[in-house]
Amino acid sequence: MKRVLGFLLLLGSTAAPSFAHPHVFISNRMTVQFDQGMLQGIAFQWTFDDMFSAMILSDYDPRHTGQFDAARAKALKAGAFDNLENYHYFIAISFGNKPVRRFGMEQFEPRITDKGRLVYTFFVPLNLAVGTAEQTVVLTVYDDSYYVAFDLLHAEDVTVQAGSGIACALSVQKTKVKPLWPGQYMPDQLYIRFKESS
Amino acid sequence: MRRFALFVFMALAASAGFAQEVPNPFTAQGARPREGFFHFLTSNVSAFVSNAMAPVQKTLNESLASITRSLQGSRSLGGLLFVALISLVYGMFHAAGPGHGKTIVSSFFLANEVRLRHSIAVGYLIAAVHSMAALSVVLVLYYLVRGLFSTGIEQANHYIQLATFAVIAVLGTVMLIGRIRGTGHHHHAHGHAPDRAGGVTFRNLLGIAVPAGMGVTISVTGALVILAKQGTLKALAAGREERDSRLRRAVEIGGAAVLFLFGLVFFLAQL
User: Fold this and answer.
1) Terminal Cα distance for chain B, rounded
2) pLDDT tens string B16-49
3) Are B18 and A185 within 8 A, CB to CB?
4) Record: contact B18-A15, CB cut-off 8 A
5) pLDDT score for A16
6) Integer Cα distance of B141 and B116 in angstroms
7) Which residues of B touch A185 (CB under 8 A)?
8) 3-state class of A129 per DSSP?
9) Closest partner residue to B98 among A21, A25, A152, by Cβ?
10) pLDDT tens digits along B98-115
11) CB A90 within 8 A of CB A103
């Protein structure tokens, strides 16, 4: 009986919830944009894998035109992007050690590469004033259900657009204490440290 | 130590049974992250395996797509064989991850007295069914469902999966009722129980292969489950024939119950 109970305990402790292996692979590129003394926000570019691209394009570009008109782009946004709001767009942001619970989503634009891969570009506004003291924004992009697998995050994949007068440093670190979202693994976090340059 | 190791293995092999089907967050309207009790029961082993395999799978994914694209219209045998090899490796990595219906196979093998050759047969059947499903059944159903419901490919897949999980739930129900009633295979409580695979027919195997083959899986897990099951029960019931018989019944009922729950959970999750 003890062994049976022990077996059941092991069975329960190793339960694997929502463990769908990745169905979608995304190459994520980001641009940190400063302007007029503010961290305006972060522009994202998601390039999807061939198979997911083909699946989406079969519905939204059935004639293989290689581009989206306004109507199709709107339909694509409604049918294959807007629902990500329920997943916080797989984006976790914190500013000054406080999570940013709500953020907007602007300038969504889909396109198709010459190799037939689907690309989403969009902008997350932050509107944070740049001061003399160093401030830090921590950004994580991942899906803790692992339905979507994002590329490992590297600082080289992030571009900074900052005029003169702003000092910005990027670094990537593993989540140390606990992930921003409860999940199955510790994702990479992008640290954006910025201040007025002297 | 060996008994403990066998228990751990069987627990890991069956752990995917608690996996909840995850909807496509891009296209499944209204889909939200799963929360609750199971969400916090994470498996470090599964997470490690998933994290380790994802980059490999992505690389294979891109390689497969690139090679397939480059071979369009080509009749190169070497190219086709290379694609087949990449596909094989990709499938192994893809199916080795959790959430691929391996529990269907494991549960069936737990619930029945089967032999290793059945595992091999199931493996080929699942591969064949999966290929046929991808090429014909799913496509036909996709256009049928899409035409009837004016829906996209993801929604069509949703209805197909719903039907598949319902089949699994029904199959598990039948098996569970049979086991509980004791109308399934029985072992003789004599010196050495004859290791016969009574009650396992080609139709049984096909009944497992069809729903399992609608996804991607491998039947090596089935073979391992057989070995683990036999070894576990033998180790536990050494010299105790009556306990051996009870343990076999318990494992068989447990396997059928997992199969039933597997199908039921997935079916309800899709509603």
Assistant:
1) 44
2) 444 445 677 888 778 777 655 444 444 444 455 5
3) no
4) yes
5) 38
6) 34
7) 47, 50-51
8) strand
9) A21
10) 555 566 677 667 667 777
11) no
CA separation for the pair A2, A22 (Å, rounded): 37
Split into its structural domains, chain B has a count of 2
Place of tokens 């497992």: B208
pLDDT at B40: 43
Does residue B176 form part of some domain? yes
Domain of residue B76: give its range: 34-98
Residue B174 shares a structural domain with residue B228: yes
- Point out which residues pair with A27 in neighbouring strands: A47
Instruction: For residues B58 and B123, state if they share a domain.
Output: no
d(CA B124, CA B102): 14
CA dist list (Å): B25 to A1, A21, A29, B29, B91? 43, 14, 20, 8, 23
Q: What is the pLDDT of residue A113?
A: 92
> Among the listed ranges A88-97, A183-192, B208-217, which one has the minimum average pLDDT value?
B208-217
Chain A stretch 71-110, residues whose beta carbon is closer than 8 A to a beta carbon of chain B: 79-81, 83-84, 86-87, 90
| A119 and B CB contact within 8 Å | no
Residue A180 has pLDDT above 80, yes or no: no
Domain boundary among B98, B121, B154: B98
Q: Give the Cα separation of B138 and B161 in Å (integer).
A: 10
A16:B26 CB<8 A: no
Average pLDDT of chain A to the nearest whole number: 81
List the 135-164 stretch of A: residues with Cβ below 8 A of B.
143-149, 152
